[in-house]
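Data availability excerpt. The first of two example chains:
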Amino acid sequence: EEASDVYFELKTSGTKGDVELGSGYVPLADVLHRGADFVDERIEITGDAQSASPIAAHLTVSVMALDALKLTQGQGRAPAGPKIDLRISELRFAPAAFSALE
């Protein structure tokens, strides 16, 4: 994980207060190195070491940042639209993630 990554945290609130179910990230360096945006990529939301399962959920995301990243490298021109666009299209929980809610 780097400071330039896009982070996702999955949390819930209950009688015991806020509980983090897991986290995941998209490395922006990978977008630049492969020369393509992440479009409908499935990432793992992983829980902590005490969780029942290492994977709490899968998240399908799109991170359109290639044009903005090229600008930071002195390549390309400024995009006409948003410099970074983020979309979340699907969240699928692992069955073990629900044990954290109890």
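And the second chain:
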Amino acid sequence: MDKIEAGVLKTEGIYLIALFAAIVIITKIAFSGSSLGEVIKLVGSVYWLWVLPGFMLMYFFGKLGFGERLVLGGIGMLGIYGVGSYYLGILGLNLGISIYALPLLAILAAGFIIYRRLSLNKDVPAHPDKVEKDVQL
């Protein structure tokens, strides 16, 4: 996948929703004493903090498949979240703010870039090393 296509985004969005539901079911089985609301809140927080932002940021690497993008994006977002919350703490923002701000900023930045690439309707490579011409955002 050298460029981002709308059909791929829709298909992978469905995969992400199905994966969320599967993880909720598995977590509910593992923590059978907990209520369904607590399990959804737990899985939703992991999805919000690491999976969704990391998955979207991995669209810059066009040769990765869904599973690779999911795993590497989650691991990458762990690092970005750790470093980002450290520097936000130095700036005076507490951890309560960074829980919402960092994933939202990562999702918005990746969403903006994906939107711009889709709206350009050009053959823009998804990986920065493959850029042959200047892309104007």
